[in-house]
Amino acid sequence: MASLEIRAARRHFVTPEGGRVAALDGIDLTVGANEFVTLLGPSGCGKTTLLRAISGFEALDSGSIRLDGTDLAALPPFKRPVNTVFQSYALFSHMSVARNVGYALEVRGVDRKAREAAVESALAKVGLTGMGGRRPNQLSGGQRQRVALARSIVAEPRLLLLDEPLSALDRNLRQQMQIELKTLQSRLGIAFVFVTHDQEEALTMSDRIVVMRAGRIEQIGTPREIYRHPRTRFVAEFIGETNLFHATVDRIEGAQALARTAQGVEMLLPATGLRRGQAVTAVLRPADFSLADQGIAGRVTRAVYLGSDLQLYVQPDAGGEEIRVTARDGANAPATGAAVHLSYAPEAAHVLEAA
Ligand SMILES: Nc1ncnc2c1ncn2[C@@H]1O[C@H](COP(=O)(O)OP(=O)(O)OP(=O)(O)O)[C@@H](O)[C@H]1O
Question: Interface pTM (ipTM) of the complex?
């Protein structure tokens, strides 16, 4: 069951300097009726513009946005069954929590009884039962964020847009709210479109991640697909820590290809789709490597303590870029200056489609 369908959406801006920016440069995206989709990308890639186009605060130059089959273009923002949660949740400080949550219904003239029931139900959904009588300044940061959420769901939107709603919270609270948001979304059974810069947040919460770059979609996939099978170098480098190896295929042996970097580091890669002489870029994550008796020979230039793990920076003896490796900390963990060998399972190496 499709919910949100965005087709060939374009929107440009003329900058004060007289330039032209394609904030949305042909976006096609379908979000399922009960799906949690995250827009992820660097500053300026068009995430906010896309949210504003969906909520109706920005018009498209061309293309269409449909919700459950209805074209939204003709509907002003307040008539769209869509609501937005912002980072600055801007609660009215002189009103009680309950009145904050019910305010949109009050403005629409919903009668008091129905309003109270809706407010109570919304507060229950975000775990704030019994807090309706408080003022916002009598709540913690996390509770205020929940009030903002309750306010955004009280009118039962079919789609909730979330524009970096957690970025003002400290790390622990943020992680707790990530789980709560995901739970709330499945419980409500509506679509969430979530915007973040934070790749870890995107990996944790999303059913699918949309990686954007300069007004275009670079890749759409589940968190695992995006992390394990990035299509491009941009996606590989944007999501998680990455080691990239530029190599040329020397020979194919059964399911494996033997490739060599310009410096002569030998790499084993999955042979699928590869041929002899081909230039490839392979992605290996820091946790794909293990310290072994043989493999890529190098020297530890830096060992960074991370708690139970160590991040090692290993300079291959053959030359080329340092390799980042995650190793368990412990008595045998190598220190700076140690000579090591790195091995990895060839099937863990992912060859990028597009160079
Ligand atoms: N009103 C405007 N006038 C001119 N340019 C604009 C306007 N709004 C956005 N832009 C430009 O459009 C591009 C996309 O902006 P947008 O705010 O959608 O990016 P974003 O991905 O949300 O960035 P951030 O993560 O920093 O919030 C940027 O280059 C921005 O400078």
Answer: 0.97
